[in-house]
Write a structure and sequence with these properties.
about 300 residues; alpha/beta; Glucose Oxidase, domain 1; two-stranded antiparallel ribbon; 12 strands; RraA/RraA-like_sf
Length: about 300
């Protein structure tokens, strides 16, 4: 057997083992398994192994557009990181944070029983849909796949929503529904991207695993991915590409501001700005950055870093 085929088989077997273990135990995927799935992340991690993208990057990510993030990921070969079709609680509240992933499945009594029994032994309290909430840290986003269930698929109401926001200061993304829209809307700063809203209670759904790879519609999501949720939809940014997405967005933003400024002044024609810039325009752009460094909508430190890397 060829070495590449052997390596592929081992990878498939390990991923299968991860999913089977999660199904049997109904608990957090082990640190070793998360490390295996996220080898390109070289930064800080949580105790559970999840990549811990820096708070500064998360804050700057809020200004990134869906199109910018999507474009960077496409250029890197990641074609399955966006999902649309949500019914957000608020259109104007951005959700950004590190994904804590959860997989739910249609209820099967024999599996659900052993998962609940194992959770009790581990000291878990309450219904299984509250277990992930107990694990949230500030800056996390509760991301759950519950197979798009709407009626009887309401993963949270306003009580759990308040608990989520108290712990994470962000929100949720559910391939499922939620209830208590009126109560949830009163939580300032919280947002929920869900498939629908329904007054029913959660029934015939079982928790299968926490912090395992999940599918959110057309997107594959790993624990620690950075969630960027805006009214257009949700982009799940692999942790090792989060800073690149942010920096690229900031450069695009600065170049757009410069171009608009110079067009208003009549210094360049639209044809000059919309095409590849000449060396003269690039040099002018660097000078413009230095002259306006204290007033631009990008951190001063980032502009200084950009200027260090430029030729002009």
């Amino acid at each position: 057997m060829k070495p590449t085929l052997i390596k592929y088989c081992r990878t498939v077997c390990l991923i299968t083992f991860i999913l089977v273990q999660a199904a049997v135990q109904g608990q957090t995927t082990s640190k070793e398994q998360i490390l295996f799935l996220t080898p390109q992340w070289q930064g800080e991690r949580f105790v559970d192994g999840r990549p811990k993208v820096a708070d500064d990057v998360l804050e700057r990510m809020k200004n990134v557009t869906i199109e910018e993030a999507w474009g960077v990921l496409r250029n890197e070969g990641y074609h399955n990181q966006f999902e649309g079709g949500w019914q957000p609680l608020h259109d104007d509240v951005v959700v950004v944070g590190r994904a804590l992933t959860v997989q739910y499945m249609p209820n099967r009594p024999d599996v659900a029983t052993v998962i609940k029994e194992n959770g009790t032994k581990e000291g878990r309290i309450g219904n299984t849909n509250s277990w992930p909430i107990d694990m949230l840290s500030e800056g996390d986003v509760y991301v759950a796949d519950a197979f798009g269930k709407i009626v009887d698929g309401t993963l949270i109401g306003d009580n759990l929503g308040n608990s989520i926001y108290a712990k994470s200061k962000t929100g949720v993304v559910f391939n499922a529904s939620s209830r208590d829209m009126e109560g949830l809307s009163e939580i300032e700063g919280f947002n929920a991207f869900v498939r629908g809203w329904h007054p029913s209670f959660l029934t015939e759904v079982m928790l299968l695993g926490i912090n395992q790879p999940i599918r959110m519609g057309a997107a594959t999501v790993l624990p620690g991915d950075v969630v960027l949720a805006k009214k257009e939809g949700v982009v799940f940014v692999p942790s090792h590409l989060a800073e690149k997405v942010v920096v690229t967005s900031e450069v695009v933003r600065l170049r757009d501001l410069f171009g608009i400024s110079r067009l208003k002044e009549g210094k360049y024609t639209p044809g000059q700005i919309d095409n590849k810039w000449t060396d003269e325009i690039e040099k002018d752009f660097s000078g413009w950055l230095k002259d306006h460094i204290d007033e631009l909508p990008v951190p001063k430190e980032q502009i200084q870093e950009l200027l260090k890397k430029r030729m002009w």
